[in-house]
Design a protein that fits this description.
This protein folds into two domains: 211 residues, Rossmann fold, CATH 3.40.50; 31 residues. By secondary structure, it is an alpha/beta fold. 31% of the residues lie in helices and 20% in strands. The strands form two sheets. Strands 1-9-6-5-2-3-4 form a seven-stranded mixed sheet. It has a three-stranded mixed sheet with strand order 7-8-10, covered by helices on one side. The relative contact order is 0.13. The longest helix is centred in the last third of the chain and has 24 residues. α4 packs across α7. The N and C termini lie far apart (41 Å). β7 and β8 form a beta hairpin.
């Protein structure tokens, strides 16, 4: 079941004693993970760099659809930007739920895939009524001829303060950020009309508000101030503290 919608994978409140698995850790493993896995060791097609393993982390090469771990072996499972690549998302989601007592899932949203299309992505996701809904991208006709991923994922985050604030205050536009306990509630290729309409019809005001809820003026102010503080904290850590290491 759904627990919350963290703003990012670095905002998770994981108990210090919890055993943590990162599935599909690739070039950017979560610093809290004890064990990290990836299917591809020598192929960087699905990631931005070579496999990386941090100190005190154990690496296990594994396919996310057949994880070599016992039931509930981990207290928390982190999986970021992997499910959109897999062959069978239902099997993959069930594996995450099987090996973990809870966890965090992050993946491009339907809107995010329209704005930042990636040729390697096979599936698009939305969270609707606390359920993750997964649909085949090609069946929606999403065969973009341009790939602006580097613009939105690398150039703007490095060079645009406004973009950084938007990423932090309206992250649900671009990604599904879903923290769960016991089991991930999902559906692949929905047949329910209320779920299908988000993928097959023009959205109206009600649908926009359902996916991107309105905030009060005070709420918008607090979100913007929090995002600004977070940006300056990140800049301080990367540019100032790094000099003393």
């Amino acid at each position: 079941m759904k627990v919350s919608n963290p703003t990012s994978r670095l905002k998770l409140k994981i108990p210090s004693q919890a055993s943590v698995l990162d599935v599909g850790s690739g070039h950017n493993p979560h610093p809290r993970a004890n064990v990290v896995t990836d299917k591809y060791v020598d192929d960087n097609y699905h990631r931005a760099g070579d496999i990386k393993v941090l100190k005190k982390q154990r690496f296990v090469q594994a396919d996310g659809e057949t994880l070599p771990f016992k039931d509930n072996e981990f207290d928390y499972v982190i999986c970021c930007h992997v499910v959109e690549h897999v062959d069978d998302p239902a099997v993959f989601m069930d594996e995450l739920s099987r090996v973990g007592k809870g966890g965090y899932l992050e993946a491009p949203s339907l809107i995010g895939e329209f704005m930042i299309p990636r040729g390697a992505h096979r599936w698009v996701l939305l969270e609707i009524d606390k359920k993750i809904v997964i649909v085949d991208k090609q069946r929606l006709g999403m065969t973009a001829t341009h790939d602006f991923g580097d613009l939105f994922l690398h150039y703007l985050p490095r060079n645009s303060f406004g973009w950084k604030i938007l990423q932090r205050t309206q992250q649900q536009i671009f990604t599904v950020n879903y923290e769960w306990k016991d089991r991930i509630d999902y559906v692949v290729e929905p047949t329910d009309a209320e779920l299908k309409k988000y993928f097959t019809t023009v959205w109206d005001q009600t649908m926009y508000e359902h996916i991107v809820p309105k905030r009060s003026l005070g709420g918008e102010y607090l979100a913007a101030m929090g995002a600004t503080a977070d940006i300056f904290k990140a800049i301080f850590k990367s540019r100032i503290l790094s000099r003393f290491k």
